[in-house]
Every structure is written in C-alpha cells, then in structure tokens.
Task: structure prediction
Amino acid sequence: QQQVKQSPQSLIVQKGGISIINCAYENTAFDYFPWYQQFPGKGPALLIAIRPDVSEKKEGRFTISFNKSAKQFSLHIMDSQPGDSATYFCAASSRGGSEKLVFGKGTKLTVNP
Amino acid sequence: NAGVTQTPKFRILKIGQSMTLQCAQDMNHNYMYWYRQDPGMGLKLIYYSVGAGITDKGEVPNGYNVSRSTTEDFPLRLELAAPSQTSVYFCASSWVTETQYFGPGTRLLVL
Result:
C-alpha cells in the first residue's frame, strides 16, 4: 500500500515557467514532509521541507504548499530553469516511526530552454 | 568531510553469487539506511539502523542482510543474488533529525 502518492510521473516545462508537483498522503501521523532532488547518476539531496504547523514555506524559487485538511502538499518551482531538470521525490515521516521516510514514486522534470 | 561514500559504483553479478555493498559516513550520524531505487518506483527502504549494534527491517528486506558494528559503517550483504535484485542501491545517514544524506549509489546488475 503506497502511503505517499505523487503526480505527475513526468513534467515538461518551458524555461521561465512554473513547475508544480503534487503529493497526497494517508497517514495522519505524518508530521514532516521533505522534497528531495535527484540528478542523473547522483543520490537524492534534500531540497526543502515543511512541518504541518505552517501552510507554506519558501526558499528562493522553491515553495512548498501544505494543506493539512486535504492531506496534500505540493512543490512549486518558480521561473523554472534548465538546471532544475531532475527527478523530484516527495516524502513523509512521523516522529514515532524512527525517522523513517516514506517516498513518493518521483516526478521527472524537464525544463526546455 | 566526505559525507556518505559507497563502493563499488557498479557491479555485475551472476545469479547465485553473493556480495557486500559498502557504505561509510564520516558525519557521526547515528541513523543509517539502505534503499533500493527501481525505475518509476521511488525509493524503497531495505534495512535501517538507529545506532551501532542495532538494525531493523524496512519495507523490502528479503534477500538482504546488514550489520552495524561501528557508527561509521553499514554494509549490505546480498546472498544468492537474483535478477530481481538488479537495482540502484543508496545508502543514507542522518542525525536525530529527518534530513537524510545520501551516498552516490551502487548500480547492481544480476544476470
């Protein structure tokens, strides 16, 4: 049973556009929601994360929006650049879960010049 | 700091062979993890450890074993390799926070 559902599977955006990736979760015990970025041939790296006590977190061009009642969170990449082309994973964990992260299946983002 | 290192980078195994994937971290993290990544399937947790001498199963532990004799090292053992174990394997570590730091991965092909 997949606990974190991520969509879309792939996304193509023009340079300067907005990229939006969505995730939904089922476990109401989740209290930490990170996004990881992975370039080809590399390991994932933490991009940005949010806790459910806030509805939005922004770091540069990257924003997480969080909707606790809908059990959804999304990543927005403003002014998308070709260098943002990567695979993005959402994840979730709960403090009672030994810090174990449950990952979504990933979204491959391609930003065309 | 080197962070999380993994060896080898790539390996071809024949069915039934065994091997050990090495993972080391120099950040003094107490938590360490092994994931496998298959195309379109995200990251699946194989085993994890909350400290030296303590390990536990993740979501997909069958066919694998781990040990954690030191804080720094967390090797993953494959016994009797099967084609279903063809994957990219990532090791990660973290302190008592959720931020996990990943290694560069080991690509394994079982033929």
Observations:
- Chain A has a mean pLDDT of 92.
- Chain A touches chain B at residues 6, 9, 32, 34, 41-46, 49, 89, 93, 98-101, 103-106 (CB under 8 Å).
- The radius of gyration of chain A is 13 Å.
- Chain A has one domain: 4-112.
